[in-house]
């Protein structure tokens, strides 16, 4: 709060006193450059003018950044937000044998690692902690620069201290070919989050920001050197093209495994409940809708990230019954402008998908239904064998009326025969009492409350679900 208030007051003061200038113009030049690479893979020269003369004469001519690691200062917290444990304090330079022992169990710290990070005592070697072949903190960092006329927006996935941001901006302005009246705007927390960036002097203070500077004392120097390289490419004065990760099955598989270990709700396995199935609708539709109205449905669902590897997959299908073909045909998917798909994780591996279809003007009248589909990792079978199973659920049948036919307050009586044109679909009109309830009421009936899933009740739930899964 202290830091935030001071930032707000200064930002407001600068905004109110700022001089107005046109950086865009009538015909602005638009360009962007985006790069993704392993920051530890390259050695680079110091980007600061004259800094080489101030460094130790025995230091190497080229610099490197270190694999990601958190320091003791990070665990100590800040002035307006202390850490969880009193043992860690700001500015601490001494390590602890006990803490280091616990740290090395998760990810051992080699003498080379500690030497690379300098004055920062490592409390978590995040770049070397591997879960399912995925590091706790990646060394692959995205960077981006966008140009709008004379304005250059630099996107970094980190928080910059005031002085580190100032130095970075001034360094980029010295790039060959940079416009005389150009402005550089630094946007942090962009395209990801890799904690803090400090100057080398701030880093040696070993406070919270230094402990959260993941890649060692040369982190700012690397960003300055690398972004200047991207700026040269954007201005046409540099020749090295940016790097980007290519879409591949291996990367998609890594993304799925990352979500399983990320600690977020409902990642890894899915559970529908003891008496429910994946895809079951939790509320019923009306018998008819007019263009401009919205059809809203909730379904028992699974983690949508289970379907990442399937290109062209749609979680929502709006289907219309064709009288000529005597079958359902797809009228819209979740990529349509009028469909909305939202996923809400619940307690104990459960989740709800809420689908909204706003019927556009001119929509072809007829009989419709909404299907929700995806893939799940069933809780019990997933523990025995890591399989992914498709699921699908469908709403009841409803009528879309022609434009201007429906009148507010008019009772919508069932038209003779329209709901019985296909005898195989008559069952869809039989709405159970639970399905006729609101989504929240049905959810309370079908889903186990999180407060009950403790101790003996948790074990009983697991045992009952296993018995159901094997057919006992």
Q: Calculate Rg over CA atoms.
A: 29 Å
Ranges where pLDDT stays below 50 over 5 or more residues in a row are: 51-56, 261-266, 409-472
Beta content comes to 15-25%
- Helicity range: 25-40%
Q: What gap, in angstroms, lies between the N and C termini?
A: 57 Å
Kindly report the average pLDDT value.
Answer: 79
Provide the domain count. 2
Number of strands: 21
Number of helices: 14
Question: Structural class of the helices, strands and pairings?
Answer: alpha+beta
Characterize the largest beta sheet: strand count, sense, and whether it forms a barrel.
6 strands, mixed
Taken from the alpha-carbon principal axes, the silhouette is globular
Can you give a write-up of this model?
It is an enzyme of class 3 (hydrolase). Its EC number is 3.5.1.23. Zn(2+) binds at residues 159, 196. By secondary structure, this protein is an alpha+beta fold. The protein has helices at residues 2-17, 51-54, 72-76, 97-106, 111-117, 162-173, 200-204, 208-211, 219-235, 249-260, 379-384, 433-436, 439-446, 455-470, and strands at 30-38, 70-71, 77-78, 81-82, 122-124, 130-131, 134-135, 140-148, 151-155, 159-160, 183-187, 196-197, 288-289, 294-300, 316-322, 327-333, 339-345, 351-358, 366-376, 389-394, 398-400. It is globular, with a radius of gyration of 29 Å. A hairpin with a 4-residue loop joins strand 15 and strand 16 (327-333). The chain folds into two domains: 23-235, no CATH class; 288-406 and 431-470, Immunoglobulin-like (Sandwich), CATH 2.60.40.2300. The chain contains 14 helices and 21 strands. Strands 13, 15, 16, 19, 20 and 21 form a six-stranded mixed sheet that branches. It is 27% helix and 22% strand.
């Amino acid at each position: 709060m202290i830091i935030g208030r001071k930032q707000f007051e200064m930002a407001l003061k600068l905004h109110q006193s700022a001089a107005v200038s046109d950086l865009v113009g009538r015909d602005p030049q638009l360009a962007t450059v985006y790069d993704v690479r392993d920051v530890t893979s390259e050695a680079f020269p110091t980007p600061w003018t004259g800094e080489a003369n101030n460094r130790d004469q025995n230091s190497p001519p080229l610099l490197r950044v270190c694999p990601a690691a958190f320091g003791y200062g990070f665990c100590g917290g800040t002035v307006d937000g202390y850490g969880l444990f009193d043992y860690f304090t700001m500015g601490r330079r001494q390590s602890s044998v006990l803490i280091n022992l616990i740290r090395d169990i998760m990810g051992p710290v080699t003498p080379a690692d500690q030497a690379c990070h300098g004055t920062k005592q490592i409390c978590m070697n995040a770049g070397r902690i591997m879960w399912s072949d995925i590091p706790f903190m990646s060394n692959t960092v995205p960077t981006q620069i966008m140009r709008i006329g004379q304005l250059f927006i630099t996107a970094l996935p980190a928080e910059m201290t005031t002085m580190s941001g100032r130095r970075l901006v001034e360094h980029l302005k010295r790039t060959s070919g940079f416009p005389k009246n150009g402005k550089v705007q630094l946007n942090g927390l962009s395209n990801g989050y890799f904690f803090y960036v400090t100057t080398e002097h701030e880093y040696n203070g070993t406070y919270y920001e230094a402990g959260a500077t993941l890649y060692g004392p040369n982190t700012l120097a690397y960003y300055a050197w690398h972004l200047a390289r991207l700026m040269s490419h954007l201005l046409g004065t540099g020749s090295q093209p940016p790097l980007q990760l290519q879409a591949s099955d291996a990367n998609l598989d890594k993304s799925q495994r990352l979500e399983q270990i990320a600690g977020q709700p409902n990642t890894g396995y899915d559970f529908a409940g003891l008496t429910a199935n994946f895809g079951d609708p939790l509320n019923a539709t009306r018998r008819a809708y007019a263009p401009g109205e919205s059809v809203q449905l909730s379904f028992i669902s699974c983690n949508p990230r289970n379907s990442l590897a399937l290109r062209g997959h749609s979680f929502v299908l709006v289907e219309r019954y064709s009288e000529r073909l005597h079958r359902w045909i797809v009228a819209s998917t979740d990529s349509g402008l009028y469909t909305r798909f939202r996923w809400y994780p619940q307690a104990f591996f459960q989740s709800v998908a809420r689908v909204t279809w706003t019927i556009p003007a001119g929509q072809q009248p007829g009989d419709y239904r909404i299907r929700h589909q995806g893939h799940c990792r069933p809780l019990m079978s997933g523990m025995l064998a890591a399989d992914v199973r498709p699921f699908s659920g469908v709403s009841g049948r409803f009528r879309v009326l022609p434009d201007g036919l429906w009148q507010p307050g008019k009772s919508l009586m069932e038209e003779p025969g329209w709901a019985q044109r296909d005898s195989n679909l008559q069952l869809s009109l039989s709405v159970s009492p639970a399905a006729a309830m609101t989504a929240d009421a049905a959810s309370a009936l079908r889903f186990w409350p999180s407060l009950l899933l403790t101790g003996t009740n948790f074990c009983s739930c697991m045992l009952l679900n296993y018995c159901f899964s094997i057919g006992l």
